[in-house]
Amino acid sequence: MKLLGLLLLSVLCCANAFNITKILDAYPDYSVFNDDLTRTKLADEINSRQTITVLVVNNAAMASLSGMDLAAIKRALSLHVVLDFYDPEKLHQVTNGTTLSTTLYQTTGAAAGNGGFINITDLKGGKVGFGLAGHGAKLDSTYVKSVKQDGYNLSVVEVSQPITTSVAEAPTPSPSNMNITSVLIKGGCKIFADLITTTGVLKSYEDSIQGGLTVFAPRDNAFTGVTNKMLTKLSSEDKVAVLEFHALTIYSPLGTLKTSNGPIATMASTGAGKYVLTVTSSGDTVMLNTGINKATITSSLLDDQPLALFSVDKVLKPKELFVAAPAPAPTPEAETPEATVPAKAKHGKSPAASEASKSTSTSFAPATAKVCTGLLAFMVGCVAVFML
Ligand SMILES: *[C@@H]1O[C@H](CO)[C@@H](O)[C@H](O)[C@H]1NC(C)=O
Ligand SMILES: *[C@@H]1O[C@H](CO)[C@@H](O)[C@H](O)[C@H]1NC(C)=O
Ligand SMILES: *[C@@H]1O[C@H](CO)[C@@H](O)[C@H](O)[C@H]1NC(C)=O
Ligand SMILES: *[C@@H]1O[C@H](CO)[C@@H](O)[C@H](O)[C@H]1NC(C)=O
Ligand SMILES: *[C@@H]1O[C@H](CO)[C@@H](O)[C@H](O)[C@H]1NC(C)=O
């Protein structure tokens, strides 16, 4: 248990190792790039990674992306986040003079083939060129200067212009015309897709897309006999609350979930602290905690700003409608016998709720940082002892 706590802390520790927004705030020349990282939530994605190189572009060169919608800018900028560490020295000493490197764009599932890789080539005369991977790639974007290096974890270098604007072209259909149920069915969440359709919750989801929507859809095998029995006991109003509990009315891609702390309001939230979820993560595993049960995100079915669809391994049970089993089940994987709350919880909607709970626990970070420093000292101490 203690070890688990330590592990958890060390994960928190490294997840918050740097803050790209804060780093770039010191450079007014990159303010457009920095704003776009925040608006597209790529900043969270960057902050939740361990080893990363960000290829920044100055304000003048960012003009070529102006006028694009946010989703397009996100696709273009994702190519500027390289999942490897390249300081100026390494850039100028690429093995054989050329290499392909993975970018964040490759991880979105939107890139066809190796469309999410960039080509880094040591050009003649000490110049380094960047371009899309692929035959006869143009290397129009070139290295300008080093901006910041943080150990061997984060490197920020300036390049002369956006690597390409061609990936920015919107895929069809656009997120607002996306057929959510068909994506869910393809992703193995047919029961959930049917539930949101028959209850009309799908309409609430669709109405939210424009302002941002994140859905955690339980996979078909999450609807076990016990769970189904409990769901059928609910009134139709409460069933709607449970289904709305599986969605956030904000766009929250994986990186944003990983860096979030404190309770997150769901579509079912009726006030601060009501129908909220907390997120914990460890490496690439992201878990949602309802206070009654925990579900793990099993895959990202779609991530195209402003819409994110995930599948999860359990039905999320809000503490407002379910109670936890008093005794732990003897077999680890057995479904614990839970019961619905007899007292009827009032359900209604209030948009102010999400604002209220968003600002709850920002004071968490400094405390963690302090513990982390202590932990780091402790670990260094351990290593020192082992080396003796
Ligand atoms: C860099 O990452 C390592 C783990 O890969 C971590 O232990 C270390 O604290 C990080 N350093 C900084 C400065 O973020
Ligand atoms: C990162 O820094 C920015 C600007 O200093 C701040 O607004 C933001 O809250 C910070 N993010 C985190 C996760 O600490
Ligand atoms: C570098 O080039 C040599 C000779 O063409 C080849 O054998 C080797 O695999 C290359 N190394 C890398 C890392 O591409
Ligand atoms: C990178 O692009 C250049 C120019 O198009 C090409 O010659 C080189 O082979 C590419 N490098 C890799 C690793 O594909
Ligand atoms: C969305 O997909 C589902 C399942 O494939 C289908 O039944 C439904 O008619 C589609 N809805 C629209 C609006 O096309």
Automatic annotation (TrEMBL):
Localization in the cell: Cell membrane
Endpoints of the signal sequence: 1-17
GO cellular component: plasma membrane; side of membrane
Low complexity bias spans: 332-343, 350-359
Keyword Membrane carried by entry: yes
Domain FAS1: 17-163, 176-316
Domain of life: Eukaryota
Keywords (A to Z) from UniProt: Cell membrane, Glycoprotein, GPI-anchor, Lipoprotein, Membrane, Proteoglycan, Repeat, Signal
Pfam families membership: Fasciclin
Keyword Glycoprotein: yes
Membrane topology (UniProt): Lipid-anchor; GPI-anchor
Region annotation Disordered: where it falls in the sequence: 327-359
PROSITE patterns: FAS1
Function as written in the Swiss-Prot or TrEMBL entry: May be a cell surface adhesion protein.
Protein family according to the UniProt entry: Belongs to the fasciclin-like AGP family.
Full protein name: Fasciclin-like arabinogalactan protein 8
